[in-house]
Amino acid sequence: MTRTLWLEQDDRLLTLDQTLLPFERRVIELASAADCARAIATMQVRGAPLIGAVGAFGLAFALRVDHSDAALADACALLLATRPTAVNLRWALDRVAERARAAEPGARAKVSWDEAVAICEADVACNASIGAHGASLLAALVRPDRALNILTHCNAGAVATVEHGTALSIVYALAARGVNVHVWVDETRPRNQGAGLTAWELSQRGVAHTVIVDNAGGQLMREGLVDAVVVGCDRVAANGDVANKVGTYLKALAAWDNDVPFYVACPVSTIDRWARSGDAITIERRDPREVTHVTGRGPDGVVTEVQVVPDGTVALNPAFDVTPSRLVTALITEHGRVEAAVGGIRRVLLAAGSV
Ligand code: MRU
Hints:
By secondary structure, the chain is α/β, with parallel strands linked by helices.
């Protein structure tokens, strides 16, 4: 099974508990709206497209129990309250809710379930297309004398989506075309999605990679060791500003200063046409404990959390940041290369039939 979210016997919704990766691969079942909300809030599932897909199923589960308008509104509120930054969650809930409202009450459960399945299938297709478009774009940077070096931040891979990933879909497509590709993997403190998830995914697929601390990218760019930065994102504003995992902005600044192209891979469902700029995007603030403590495997093989600051230290934990559109070379969507600016965003929304 290559999917991160899948159905068994057409009815059992299964996924991986990502809080346990890379040390344990445990499959969990999500069987209710509350299960889906909990899985998103605790980051058993994470990554913008995957959050959207799980949210869609959460709504479908709720409508099996009670198909009233009130139950629909309550379930939407429960699921939306889980995480605020990735717009794919709101997008998926709106899409399922719209289909459900248009249906006879007795058909709502089935219609919403079918819509959640359709969202998953569309995610897989979009990501495959992002991979193909991105690989064609980045192939121009290949040099005969060395590997194509791509730096990525956080995890925008298969486990952040239903399948393929967004930024990593491009890497996988390049590798499938026979390109000698190497990935610089930012560890991505505080939760280490790069060190834990991206490195795990790349090693599973046999893609060469090296984990670096979050602050190393700038120096590697100065040394000419990065051909392109490719990241995913959680929300694109109407002017092309991009919200992604905290630390992305600093990579974009370093890329700009070193003439390294900075690409953002995302499906059109990650564009929020109602957010005029990045200033309108809510940046999630998470538990400071994620900063003051780290989790890892000890020499005894046991996964433990350890404190890394003096007792009583105050910490702040903004989970995302905004990269201004002027620093973004282009977005890479399922419709191809898109200029990160009002005109480009408007055109791709039109092409996707989203306006
Ligand atoms: O906090 P997370 O792990 O959900 O953050 C994920 C990211 O920032 C990803 O880069 C983004 O969602 C793109 S996923 C294809």
